[in-house]
Amino acid sequence: MPEPPAAAEPAPAPPPAAGAGGDHWGTRVGVILAVVGSAVGLGNFLRFPGLAAKYEGGAFMVPYFVALLVLGIPLAWAEWALGRRGGRKGFHSTPGIYWALSQKRGMAYLGTLGTIVPVIIFMYYVLIEAWCLSYAWFFLTGTMAELGERAAAGAAAGEVDASPFVGLFTDWAGLDANGAAFAKPGLLLAVLLCFALNFGLIARGVSRGIERFCLLAMPALILCAFVVLLRVLTLPGIAEGLGQMWNPPADAAGWRQQLLDPTMWVEATGQIFFSLSIGFGLIIVYSSYVKRNEDIALSGVSAAAGNELCEVCLGGLITIPAAALFLSATALTAAAASTFNLGFMTLPLVFDAMPGGRLFGFLFFFLLFLAAATSSLSMLQGALALFEEGLGLTRAKAVGLLAAVAAAGTLLVLVFSEDAKALDTLDTWVGTLFIYVLAFTQTILFGWVLGPERGMAELDRGAAMRVPRLLGFVVRWVCPIYLGVLFVAFLYDQLVTRDGGMFAAVFSDPVVAASVGFMGLVIFGTLMAIRMAVPRWQRMSEDQQAEEDESTWISGATS
Hints:
The chain is an all-alpha fold and about 550 residues long. It has one domain: Amino acid/polyamine transporter I (Up-down Bundle). Helix content is about 80%, strand content about 0%. The protein is built from 24 helices and no strands. It has helices at about 30-40, 40-55, 60-90, 95-100, 105-110, 115-140, 145-155, 165-170, 185-205, 205-235, 240-245, 250-260, 260-275, 280-285, 295-325, 330-335, 340-355, 355-390, 395-415, 420-450, 450-460, 470-495, 500-510, 510-559. The longest helix has about 50 residues, at about 510-559. It is found in: Membrane. Pfam families: SNF. It is a multi-pass membrane protein. One of its GO terms (cellular component) is membrane. It comes from Phycisphaera mikurensis (strain NBRC 102666 / KCTC 22515 / FYK2301M01).
């Protein structure tokens, strides 16, 4: 029998990360519900209806579905393929997957945004999650009913007095002054409960923590949504409310004019990003835990379909149609212009005013809490994987470090709570600017580094349905051009139309400067972590290659 080829003794292999050591989704239903949960959030029930109402007559749905078909589903499929291919190599963080598929340090640095985008979003999203939990409690305990009585007493004939509900949110969220939220023990308790829920679940792992929670939370969310929808659809005059949002205008020229509005196309594309969680690095991380021969093509379509059910069929039929019955056209337009106005000032008034509002208001805000919780969970897993596989930390130490970083960001938002300026700054930079850049890097990784052929082969592995061959061309050429045009339009709007916009505010507003500076620290820390991780990843790859060579030699020797 021939001797195996001599080889230099490799450096001692680092222990596998907790995620890389065999943690996988237990069931296909589990991973689909987890991905749907990461996508379904406040945007489905508040932002989407607001945009659909802003562009009346269903005009918004044209660019919405164009963006879904041309950008949303292709990019989602690309993320599924990239994630599982990286996961098969033992990597579960976005920088690690970028490095594994390219073997280049520079690509690992490009994957930085895939870690910091979701983590920074979590820093303020967990606060909104706490608001939803608080409002569910307010409805359950009758606080909203008391505000409704005050609103009715102060209302003029034929008008609605929303000031008690506006005052509640302004006071509870600490919008009056910086640090005012710290005077609300109830809010701080809700934030701590949300932190405990999120970090307690990710500490248990993908299958025992995230999957089990989503298997319970997503059916409960959908059940609550259908119960609330049934209540809304049985309200007297609901046809008028539905018409406010969906009836085509009598003037066809006005409808065509809306379709020529570039702002609507940009906002529709942004909504698709939020709807499907593309450009956030979430699908890549979740799909890296999918087993080798799972049908990710079908899972990707199923997850997108589940999200669209929640967004168009549930979110689109609950909020604006119900609000249209209780508000004037002017008040409705003003409410729909802001997610916070609609969600925490207008809808509490609407639910309180309808029959059985105490129960249905509780169910609505409880489903918002569940939607926020399933989304926020997904925002943490990628950074946790980086700490484990890149720095060699144990699960407990990685969870502790991530909790400390996230808590620092949430404290920043609470300290600079006046007018939610810190929250808005983080959301504008991360949720608007960074996601386009990250999505662009994903198209480069799939279309030019991995290549359409290998990418399509990954999607076809174990698939019952074949993905259209056109996908490779779309991700390689169409998506980058589409994203590039949107990015240029965004920069033009900020730099020219808004005279510097978000960039000028960094130099003129100390709160904005502090928020951007904090993001800079997070980015720097992540880059340093990746720098330390790359040598470790190189050793992991060398050991994997050595094992493959040995397996090949043994197979050849015994054949």
